[in-house]
Structure prediction request, 327 residues.
Amino acid sequence: MTHIEVILPIFNEVKNIPILLERLDKVQKELNEQALLTYLFINDGSEDGSRELLNQLHFSRKDIRVIHLLHNFGHGPALACGVEHFKGNIAIFMDADLQDPPEAIPEMFEAWKKGAKTVVAERASRSENNKLLFNTFYYLLHKVAPTLPPVDFGTHCLLDVSVINRIRTLKEKTRYFPGLVGFASPKVEAIPVHRLKRVEGNSRVGLKGLIHLAITAFLSFSSMPVRFVSILGLLASVTALISGTVIVAIKVFTSLAIPGWASMMSALAFGSGIQLLCLGIIGEYIARIYDEVKERPLYLVETLLENGPHRSLSLENSDLMPKVLRF
Ligand code: UDP
Ligand code: MG
Prediction:
């Protein structure tokens, strides 16, 4: 029987987990004998009772593995932990807030049976706020990063174990998950889904996190930002050359007074603004290069609960230590 492991990053989702599991259990019924669903919850430092709930679920059910991270590392690192610890034939990645409908799993599985190795849930429509922001982001990203799969998707996808194994070889710290999936896949198949609103609470990633993710996507899959700096520098030089020539010509050939303080101050302010912008863009690259060379792990595991209540492993006593620290 095919083993599907569903990988669920969790940060303060205590109210969503029971609803999510109820819906996933219905999917298991639908899949019947064809596939076995099990769950890998990555608890990313929750402080709302999710930890205790996941411990209880692990002790009462055989199909749940739980990894408690040491503290909150973020959505991306939690996904990286899922990639590293996945076991099975197929991985399904999805958010735990039910924005990604579990009911899409059977359709993804059908595509896998027909030979697809990567099936992503394309966000054909959205119920979220900030629709314009998301659409503009994907439009710009796909314009400047042609190597990315031209599909609007986030986390929700099915990956064959062969694709997971390829992603495991990608050691970069600046990780844009859909980009890594596209890079490691022979072909990306998409099924359209409607992106729903979060069932309970507000976004855990938040606007700040989304902006960080957007910058990561642009910097790691396109050299457009740094080219933009060069183009801006070139334009500024050409403008300076033309205006300098005009000013010299006015001075030499006419008796007109060169306009003074106001124009000089605005040119100065404009020039400094552009310089700071360019420094900021270069600084973003340097910050990421620094992250890469530090080789600090993306996440640290505190406890790993697996193989049923009697064989739960505490990380300190397990041979997983070197494997986890490899990131
Ligand atoms: N999440 C996480 N760590 C974080 C933030 C979020 O593991 O630091 C989880 C969260 O519990 C959810 C998924 O990542 O299952 C997506 O988060 P969220 O819904 O906040 O993202 P959004 O849909 O707003 O992009
Ligand atoms: Mg969400």
About this structure: DSSP finds eleven helices and nine strands in the chain.
